[in-house]
Specification:
The complex is a heterodimer of chains A (293) and B (312). With 293 residues, chain A is of the alpha/beta class. Helices cover 28% and strands 17% of the residues of chain A. Chain B is an alpha+beta fold. In chain B, the strands form three sheets. In chain B, strands 10, 11, 12, 13, 14, 15, 16 and 17 form an eight-stranded antiparallel beta sheet that branches. The chains are: A alpha/beta (293), B alpha+beta (312).
C-alpha cells in the first residue's frame, strides 16, 4: 500500500507549506495549524568592538570584559554587571557554562571572561563549572549559560544555539539527519528545561559555510557578542547575520542549505522562543562596520 | 596508501610533526569532529590520519589525510567547493577538454587552508594562522601529498558543457556525491532520502546557466544519478515522484526509457525527469518546457555516446 505520509521537500519552502508538511510528517499534532501565537517581543543585543581581536586573531581580554559588561546590562536592564548576573541566576545556583568545545570552539577567553564576571558578582568559583558534555552535566546544574560559537553547519544549516545542547541528548548522531528539526526537544528535557538563563554567542570569528570544520575563506572578524534570554530569537538573529554574509561573499543570494528548520520548529513546536523577526527587538552597541542586519 | 608511503616530511620550515599520526576511523570519527564526520561517512570512507605540525613560536599546521575507498570519493569531497586559489603542483597537470568536465585543479588554497585530491586521498592542510611562512609550508606539504593524477569520476564526464547555444554548465558548481545529506548541502531537495541514494550509488549535480540572459542569470539544476541496476533506478525514481510530485500522475514505468521526459510545471519552474536504464536524470527550475526537454535530451545523448548502454 502506498505510503501517504507527506515528505518535506524543497517545494514546501517555496510554497510556504513547511509547517503543514512538518506537522503531518515529523511532528504530528504538535505543530500548530493556525496562525502564530501572540507573543511579546524578545530582546537580542549585539555588542561589537573592532579591537576585540587583532589581525592575528589574538583576543583582547580587556575588550571582552567591556563587551560582556555592556551585554549583561543591556540584556537585563540592570545598571551594573553584578546586579545583571543576580537578576539571571541565584547566588547559590550551580552554574554550568556551555561553550562549544569542538571544531570552531568557543574562544577560551570568552569562557574565562564569563566565569570571572560571575565570580566578581559573588558566585563562588566552586559553583561554576563547564557543562559541555553529556546528560550528566546539566543534571548537576541549576542554571546554564549557553556560550556557542556562531557557525553554519552542513547538516542542519546553522549549528549555533539550538545545536549547542546536542550532547545533552545522549545520542547526538540521532539529530544529524532528518531529525535535526527536533533539536529543540533537547531544551525541553526535564533536566534542561528552564535552566538556560542567558545565551551569549561568541561571534568574534564566525563561520558562514562548510561548518563545523573550519574553512578560513568563510570566516571573518565580526568581533561581537550576540545575546539574549530567548534562545530562538538569538538563533534567528544569528541566521540573519550568516545569511547576509553569504550573500556578501557570493554577490547574490546564497541560502543556507539545508534550510535550518530546527529554528522554526523550536518556536512553533517546542515553544522555546520566537523565530519571527517582527517579534525580535535587536539592539546594537559599538562597532557598526558590516553589521549584517 | 598511508602516510609512510606518502613520505610526509618530518619537518617543514619551522614546523615538525610527530612520528605517528593520530588515527581516526568510522568508529571514532564523531569523537574527533562531531557532526562533520557524517560528511566523510557519506562517501566511501576508510580512515583519517591526522598530523599536527608544531613550532615553538608559530601556530600549528594541521594535516588531515582522508583515505577513501576510491579516487571518486576523494574527488567528491574536493568537488563540494571549487573556490579558492588553484595550486599547481609539478607533475600534476590539469587536464582540459572543451567537450566535457575536467577537474580545473587538484588542489585549492584559501586563507591558510589547502584542500587537495590525489588518488584516493582527500587532504586538508590548515595553518591556524596564515603567514608567508605558513603558506610556504602548506604548499610544501601539498606537494608531498600530491603524487599521481587520476581522472574524475566517469559520471561527471557525462555532462555536456553546453546545451545548444543557450545553456552553459557551471563547472565551478559541479559536485559528485553518494548521499542525500551531501545533496541537501548543495541543493536542498528533501530531508528524507527520496532518491534512495547510498554508497552504491553515484550522483552529480550542477547548474546549467542560461547564456546572454538579461536581468541576471537563470540557472537550472541538473542531477544525474547512477544506481547498481535499472531496477534500483526505477524504484528510486518512483519514490522521488511520490514524494516530490504527489499531486501529479506518474509519467514513468519501467519501459519508458525511450519516451520523452516527464515534465511538470512547479512553483519554481519546470521540472523534468527521465529514467535511462540504471540512470536517473532530473532537471529542476527550468524556465520553460523546451529548456527542460533540451537539457535532458542533450544529457541523454551524451550518456549514450560516452556511457553507451543504458542497460535497458
Amino acid at each position: 500500500m502506498k505510503d501517504k505520509t507527506p515528505v518535506l521537500t524543497r517545494r514546501d519552502f517555496i510554497r510556504g507549506t513547511i509547517g503543514m508538511t512538518l506537522g503531518a510528517s515529523i511532528f504530528g499534532l504538535q505543530w500548530p495549524g493556525g496562525e502564530a501565537r501572540a507573543a511579546g517581543s524578545s530582546l537580542v543585543t549585539i555588542v561589537r568592538d573592532k579591537n576585540a581581536m587583532d589581525s592575528a586573531k589574538n583576543v583582547d581580554i580587556t575588550v571582552l570584559e567591556k563587551m560582556l559588561a555592556e551585554t549583561l546590562t543591556r540584556v537585563t536592564g540592570q545598571t551594573n554587571t553584578k546586579d545583571a548576573w543576580l537578576s539571571l541566576v541565584k547566588p547559590n545556583d550551580v552554574i554550568g557554562l556551555v561553550p562549544t568545545d569542538h571544531l570552531n570552539p568557543t574562544h577560551d577567553e570568552v569562557v574565562d571572561v564569563v566565569k570571572q564576571s560571575l565570580i566578581d558578582a559573588g558566585i563562588p568559583e566552586k559553583k561554576i563549572r563547564r557543562a559541555a558534555g553529556g546528560p550528566r552535566d546539566p543534571k548537576k546544574c541549576d542554571a546554564l549559560i549557553a556560550l556557542p560559537g556562531l557557525k553554519a553547519h552542513w547538516l542542519t544549516g546553522i549549528g549555533t544555539v539550538l545545536k549547542n545542547y546536542i550532547l545533552y541528548s545522549g545520542s547526538p548522531s540521532s539529530y544529524h539527519k532528518s531529525d535535526s528539526a527536533k533539536l529543540g526537544e533537547i531544551w525541553n528535557l526535564p533536566f534542561v528545561k528552564g535552566k538556560t538563563k542567558l545565551v551569549l554567542v561568541d561571534s568574534l570569528y564566525p563561520l558562514c559555510d562548510k561548518g563545523p570544520q573550519a574553512d578560513p575563506r568563510y570566516q571573518w572578524a565580526y568581533n561581537g557578542f550576540i545575546a539574549g534570554t530567548d534562545p530562538v530569537a538569538v538563533e534567528t538573529v544569528c541566521l540573519k547575520i550568516i545569511t547576509k554574509k553569504r550573500k556578501a561573499i557570493r554577490g547574490e543570494p546564497w541560502p543556507l542549505s539545508p534550510p535550518p528548520i530546527c529554528v522554526e520548529a523550536a518556536d512553533k513546536v517546542y515553544g522555546l522562543g520566537t523565530s519571527r523577526m517582527e517579534q525580535i527587538k535587536i539592539e546594537h552597541y559599538g562597532w557598526d562596520h558590516e553589521l549584517l542586519l | 596508501m598511508n602516510a609512510g608511503k606518502l613520505n610526509l616530511p618530518k619537518a617543514v620550515g619551522v614546523w615538525n610533526r610527530p612520528d605517528a599520526p593520530r588515527m581516526i576511523n568510522a568508529s571514532n570519527i564523531f569523537k574527533y569532529m562531531n557532526g562533520a564526520g557524517e560528511l566523510y561517512l557519506a562517501y566511501r570512507f576508510r580512515h583519517v590520519e591526522v598530523f599536527n605540525y608544531t613550532s615553538a613560536d608559530q601556530d600549528n599546521i594541521l594535516v588531515e589525510l582522508y583515505f577513501m575507498e576510491g579516487s571518486d570519493d576523494a574527488f567528491g569531497l574536493l568537488s563540494l567547493d571549487w573556490g579558492g586559489e588553484p595550486f599547481s603542483i609539478s607533475g600534476f597537470p590539469a587536464v582540459t577538454s572543451d567537450k566535457h568536465f575536467t577537474s580545473p585543479t587538484r588542489a585549492l588554497y584559501g586563507g591558510g587552508l589547502m584542500r587537495l585530491w590525489s588518488e584516493n586521498i582527500y587532504a586538508r592542510i590548515l595553518a591556524e594562522c596564515e603567514t608567508p611562512a605558513s603558506k610556504e609550508a602548506v604548499f610544501a606539504l601539498g606537494k608531498a601529498i600530491a603524487k599521481n593524477t587520476t581522472n574524475p569520476p566517469e559520471l561527471v564526464k557525462m555532462l555536456p558543457l553546453e546545451i545548444g547555444a543557450a545553456w552553459k554548465l557551471r563547472t565551478d558548481r559541479l559536485s559528485f556525491f553518494r548521499s542525500h545529506l551531501v545533496l541537501n548541502s548543495i541543493y536542498y531537495v528533501s530531508h528524507e532520502n527520496i532518491l534512495d541514494l547510498d554508497l552504491t550509488a553515484e550522483a552529480v549535480i550542477a547548474p546549467y546557466e542560461r547564456i546572454s540572459d538579461s536581468g541576471g542569470p537563470k540557472r537550472s539544476q541538473f542531477l544525474l544519478a547512477q544506481y547498481e541496476n535499472p531496477e534500483r533506478a526505477r524504484r528510486a525514481l518512483n519514490r522521488f515522484h511520490d514524494a516530490y510530485l504527489p499531486e501529479f500522475k506518474k509519467g514513468i514505468t519501467a519501459d519508458t526509457a525511450a519516451d520523452s521526459p516527464s515534465l511538470y510545471k512547479l512553483e519554481d519552474g519546470w521540472l523534468a525527469y527521465k529514467l535511462l536504464g540504471k540512470y536517473i536524470a532530473i532537471v529542476f527550475e527550468c524556465p520553460d518546457q523546451e529548456s527542460a526537454r533540451a537539457i535532458l535530451q542533450k544529457n541523454e545523448s551524451s550518456l549514450l555516446k560516452k556511457g553507451g548502454d543504458h542497460e535497458r
